């Protein structure tokens, strides 16, 4: 989800001023409808929706003109694939509170990927997390809420801060248990806040300590989503396109 899609039109479908084009993605349980932006007479641009599962969906390019019936211009298939970022997000979501799994993730810290790789990882994993269907009872600190803040343990927040993942940290802060994780010490006595300070992650430390800290720059800052029951509408300010998602 959230990639830019370009649609190339044939000569006979070249854009007239009063025609509006949009794409309809039909999956097994969810349908998305996206508006498009005209780049030039032969090209359209829009944003791919974040889907609820990995599958091949049908995509219809539709044209609308006032006073005329909606026309299906073309149909194609579009595949949502399970990539490493999706795998990573799923793994992290399921191991919240699992000390064995969280301690295992610390081996990543020893290899210290380059800054560019960390930024790419951060963007992709945070985006995948946003599109995961997390259970209603999901919590950053795991399922066992009887644990007190005084018990030293590793948390998902420690993991995100240790690698310097700004966007993932922001996402976790917005989830149940996110703020509570900031004061939890691990077995070395470090909290996520002290880890950020110790490693010189100034932006990350600011994000964790400032009340009015803003979301890190990413696609998500360019969009605004409104949910209502089985429907959601997302506005991408960057391209000025809208996306309606409905659960079937």
From TrEMBL:
Q: Which Gene3D superfamilies match?
A: Ankyrin repeat-containing domain
Q: Which SUPFAM superfamilies match?
A: Ankyrin repeat (SSF48403)
Molecular function terms, GO-annotated: MAP-kinase scaffold activity
Naming one, the record's GO cellular component terms include: actin cytoskeleton
Highest taxon of the source? Eukaryota
GO terms of biological process kind: adrenergic receptor signaling pathway; positive regulation of canonical NF-kappaB signal transduction; regulation of Rho protein signal transduction
What is the protein name stated in its UniProt record?
A: AKP13 protein
């Amino acid at each position: 989800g959230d990639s830019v899609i370009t649609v190339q039109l044939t000569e006979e479908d070249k854009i007239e001023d009063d025609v509006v084009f949009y794409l309809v993605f039909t999956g097994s349980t969810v349908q998305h409808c996206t508006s498009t932006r005209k780049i030039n007479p032969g090209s359209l641009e829009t944003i791919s929706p974040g889907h609820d599962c990995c599958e091949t969906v049908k995509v219809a390019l539709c044209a609308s003109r006032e006073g005329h019936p909606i026309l299906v211009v073309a149909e194609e298939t579009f595949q949502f694939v399970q990539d490493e970022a999706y795998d990573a997000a799923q793994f992290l979501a399921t191991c919240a509170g699992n000390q064995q799994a969280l301690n295992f993730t610390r081996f990543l810290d020893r290899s210290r990927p380059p800054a560019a790789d960390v930024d790419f990882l951060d963007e992709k994993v945070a985006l995948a997390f946003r599109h995961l269907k997390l259970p209603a009872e999901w919590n950053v600190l795991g399922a066992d809420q009887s644990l007190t803040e005084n018990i030293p343990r590793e948390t998902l927040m420690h993991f995100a801060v240790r690698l310097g993942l700004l966007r993932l940290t922001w996402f976790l802060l917005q989830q149940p248990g996110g703020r509570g994780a900031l004061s939890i010490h691990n077995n070395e006595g470090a909290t996520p806040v002290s880890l950020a300070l110790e490693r010189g992650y100034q932006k990350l430390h600011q994000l964790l300590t400032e009340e009015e800290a803003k979301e890190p720059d990413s696609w998500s800052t360019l969009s605004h989503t409104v949910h209502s029951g089985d429907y959601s509408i997302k506005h991408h300010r960057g391209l000025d396109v809208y996306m309606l998602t409905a659960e079937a």
